[in-house]
Amino acid sequence: MRAAVRRGRALFCEEIQDPPLGAGQVRVKTLACGICGSDLHALHYFDRMAEMSRRTSGSSSFDPNKDCVFGHEFSAEILEFGPATEGKLKSGTRVVSVPSATNAAGGLEIVGYSNLLPGGFAERMVLNEALLVEVPNGLASHVAALTEPFAVGAHAVAKAHAEPGSPCLVVGCGPVGLAVIAALKARGHGPVIAADFSPRRRAAAEAMGADVIVDPAKENPHGQWAVFSVPATMFQARMMNAAGQPTKRPIIFECVGAPGVLQSILDGAPVGAKIVVAGVCMETDSFEPFLAINKELEMTFVLAYSGEEFAATLHDIAEGRINAEALITSRVGLNEVPQAFERLANPEADVKILVEPWR
Amino acid sequence: MRAAVRRGRALFCEEIQDPPLGAGQVRVKTLACGICGSDLHALHYFDRMAEMSRRTSGSSSFDPNKDCVFGHEFSAEILEFGPATEGKLKSGTRVVSVPSATNAAGGLEIVGYSNLLPGGFAERMVLNEALLVEVPNGLASHVAALTEPFAVGAHAVAKAHAEPGSPCLVVGCGPVGLAVIAALKARGHGPVIAADFSPRRRAAAEAMGADVIVDPAKENPHGQWAVFSVPATMFQARMMNAAGQPTKRPIIFECVGAPGVLQSILDGAPVGAKIVVAGVCMETDSFEPFLAINKELEMTFVLAYSGEEFAATLHDIAEGRINAEALITSRVGLNEVPQAFERLANPEADVKILVEPWR
Hints:
The structure is a homodimer. Chain A is of the alpha/beta class. Chain A is built from 11 helices and 18 strands. In chain A, α3 crosses α4 (175-186) and α3 (147-160) crosses α10 (307-318). Chain A starts with a strand and ends with a strand. At the A-B interface, α1, β15, α9 and β16 of A face α1, β15, α9 and β16 of B. β15 of chain A pairs antiparallel with β15 of chain B, so a sheet runs across the interface.
């Protein structure tokens, strides 16, 4: 089958072998697969990602020097059933799945970051039947593919434990920040303040339903706290409470993942804020702990989502609570994958590019 | 009256003026006052502390270039009542108080870090009547003075929201770490693992009731997680849950406050751990956010305590749930304050030195 193969620090469109079907597995046709910021990063810094995974989760069989087919934000159609499958969903059913599947040795692979199982930038994939979720009728396949990135937002929002009416600031409106905005609005949270230097991304934040949109080049996003009656200091908070004025814990979502962003958030955050770190910073970062101590800040670092959050996100999209389609700026075939990766380096050019390997 | 005055980067024992008594205030005789790690730090880095306070809480009238009498861990005896006081506690009553009082202009001063109100390294202080808490009969005055540092531990533990049976690791057994151990044991939490390079401090950790004591020079403190069945990875946690084996969220207290400690904790922490940062690091620190993301760690930065936590701590000490006296290694007069500050730089020499200005 055809696939976009990562080898060295480049992508090559070529023919590869279909992997064998293991027990409980199905072969699927890839209908659509989004390009994720992690893919862009992995193209260049795969060694570091693999090293970090080893340090955090013990041994890893993954080898960044071997071929890998990226793609973990996908929708697909069932083609073929392997041994010991149940067949509850028939052949031809459209599905999504968390990007996790077993290899022939019974180990767990991340589909899209595996040497053994190709991800969604290939015509076909092998998935675990037990993890498949049927795409509801009426939801277009290319939109269903965005379940995965929006589930990242749903998880970050769940981890924030926002009270009703908590003011939320989303720093960075790339796909992660946009998914956070969408999840906040789908759950009735807010007001939601969104900040990004890019006009294109600010427009996307508006499409996701952000209530206030700030260009940090013109205005400090933390200036908005006063607008929403968030006390800046412990003393102000005490005064407001004493006056019977309710104060909600402010929440800040870090969705950039670059060095220095966390420190700028610590500098601007009001006292007692909860910071949910959803941006993936691969480099060493520095900050002044004393700022966080003096303001009694909390930082919660989040990763991925649960199976329940993934399934709930698919239904949020299908039922119109999340306008996933508004994120899609291009749909390309496999041959165009290398150029699409290059285009995504420019935040003005694209937000989300979908690869449709059947094109 | 006599006081140990901080001027420049040195301490001078000399005569100073008693400040005037404002509305709602009482004059007290200082019975005992502990030397805090923050005092040692403030002697040398007061400019930086003042700058940080300004950055985190807006304007501050405090001037590090003017004289200041340190001392915020005190017990005292009521001498004299100012205007508009209620006099519920009689003259001669022994009291403790959170180190906060109003100045003549009605502003709030931190007693012990103020240019206007001297702290406990002076024969007398001015305190707000409304904040006084009576020392119970039978509790020695020099032990009651330790209410403040132990309240710091009580607050850190309250912010940890530990489940019953959560394994807790305390990194650093200086006064903050020891107060955390004491508060954990007073509330029935644990098992409590304590780690410190100093034999003196490990012995103090034992006196506070730590269940396991580790010398990090000989053994990685994070090796203890396996002993208490804490899953190291998300995968292990899922396997244990599936097998009906209960897992508790591990809690790590950072009680050192030096650059690099947080990174070493991120490196060793099991997945999903909650890190309570109680050590006050005044310098810029660096860390790898990716470790925290991949393990979904949470960092809660804590400062001080509430009035309720302060009062509850006094009663924990009075009723024997906290063995505060075990922390005290020396009791000195005002003349010995400069040497006592020097001695505290060596962790083997002392744990807590009390100043008794009447000596």
